[in-house]
Amino acid sequence: MERAYQLSRDPVYFLMAAFFALLTTGLPAVMGQPRFMPFIQAVVLTIFLAISVRRGDIRSGLGIVFLWLAVTMSLILLLTWFVPEQLERAFDNGFMQRAMTSEWYFARSPLPGGITVEPLATAAEIAGIVLGSLLTGGLVGAWFLVRMANLAAFSAGHLLGIFGNPILIFIALPVWSILQIA
């Protein structure tokens, strides 16, 4: 007996998600679009996630999110490593973000965007994410997720550019950034 076809289990579905992750990350990043990049990423990720959730396939939805984050973070990390000046235009205050990341690593100042910098504002932001995600069907949560992933990859790419050795990715990608994304 044949099982019914499920779009969310089709390998082409995952290939399309990876393609759109590359498309919605690469083009706005290279063009230097700081507001368009996370917006279009969040919209397309929410659509792919909604397809899986609508079909009741949570495992596929989680797979899409992990695939999306892996593709976008890898692309931004590589682009930042090779063309940092071009990619800093794709982030609000990209130059300052790079400077604060260097200061965090070399001068042991607080991690930019970390909870220790502004704990009250971070707690309010988390509450806003939860409430906004519930009200918009996950769009606000996806926007914050891709924004955090983009900033973490941008910072890691900058540090890798300084280190010059790709093996040091585990030092360059701060654990707090990974925990924020999770």
Describe the structure.
With 182 residues, this protein is an all-alpha fold. It has one domain (7-181). Helix content is 75%, strand content 0%. The chain has nine helices and no strands. α2 packs antiparallel against α3, α3 (58-82) packs parallel to α7 and α5 crosses α7.
The gist of it:
By secondary structure, the protein is an all-alpha fold. The protein contains nine helices and no strands.
What is the chain-wise order of helices and strands?
HHHHHHHHH
Structure annotation, total helices:
9
Note the overall shape: globular
C-alpha termini separation: 39 Å
Helix proportion: over 70%
Largest sheet: none
- Output the structural class: mainly alpha
Q: DSSP strand (E) fraction?
A: under 5%
Number of strands: 0
Q: Into how many domains do the coordinates divide?
A: 1
Indicate the radius of gyration in whole angstroms.
17 Å
- Average of pLDDT: 84
Low-confidence runs of at least 5 consecutive residues: none
Q: Which features would summarize this protein structure in a list?
A:
182 residues, mainly alpha, 9 helices, 75% helix, 0% strand, globular
